[in-house]
Amino acid sequence: xxxxxxxxxxxxxxxxxxxxxxxxxxxxxxxxxxxxxxxxxxxxxxxxxxxxxxxxxxxxxxxxxxxxxxxxxxxxxxxxxxxxxxxxxxxxxxxxxxxxxxxxxxxxxxxxxxxxxxxxxxxxxxxxxxxxxxxxxxxxxxxxxxxxxxxxxxxxxxxxxxxxxxxxxxxxxxxxxxxxxxxxxxxxxxxxxxxxxxxxxxxxxxxxxxxxxxxxxxxxxxxxxxxxxxxxxxxxxxxxxxxxxxxxxxxxxxxxxxxxxxxxxxxxxxxxxxxxxxxxxxxxxxxxxxxxxxxxxxxxxxxxxxxxxxxxxxx
Length: 315
Known about the structure:
Helix content: 55-70%
CATH topology: MetI-like fold
CATH class: Mainly Alpha
Largest sheet: none
Organism: Piscinibacterium candidicorallinum
Membrane topology: Multi-pass membrane protein
Protein name: ABC transporter permease
CATH architecture: Orthogonal Bundle
CATH superfamily: MetI-like
Number of strands: 0
Radius of gyration: 24 Å
Number of helices: 14
Keywords: Cell membrane, Membrane, Transmembrane, Transmembrane helix, Transport
Main location: membrane
Number of domains: 1
Shape: globular
Distance between the termini: 38 Å
């Protein structure tokens, strides 16, 4: 049998085998930092997703909370209770359970706000880069103006405007949506500038010119042909911005303008624990702070690895 015939009869590789042999997988397997960061992210995300099933206590169920157990120190400290490994807060809620549910809330805020920022940034960046002219100038000038303000200030301004615009008493019920929109609107500029720069390069290539010649709709050219070729830098930016969005939410909650105490995100837990820090209840702020640091650091390390892995100049 000839070599050609043997190759023709050879069984094609499965998608898993192709993925395992890809350059991205090879880079991941040879990066100890990326592997450790991925393990930490998987553990934290797994704990967040499985919190309703594996958490020792449901902090939202008042029937499981006993005020007599409030401010119990961790199990290894004097006065600790084996029932509460990391201790309890001032309401008697188990800190370990709060951490699991808090990571879940913080991740939902981070992912939702990054998704909104990506949608706005990619759409406006594609439009600016592909159309050009006055449309490009207008979008980029708006982006330049927004970049002149710190992101946290923009979030605070949007949150303050929402408090004034929404009917009295309805802000607390919509605070989750307000925080997501505020963080998303403060981060779209990075995606828009990144996509615009890549679109300016891609729109002059042969495949785009060919699509124009045969009469393909400009929107179809932008989203079906140009967009897939500019997504590499966007994915890197989105990975890093997840950690940034989680930290922004924690900052807002620490300042008292974020999520309410009924939604114990990591930022809310740190804010409540900080109030009791000088009275000796250190575990209420230390453990949420460690969880926030591990989540942000591991996601950032994965983003750095992905940036290097997708850079052809570093291959």
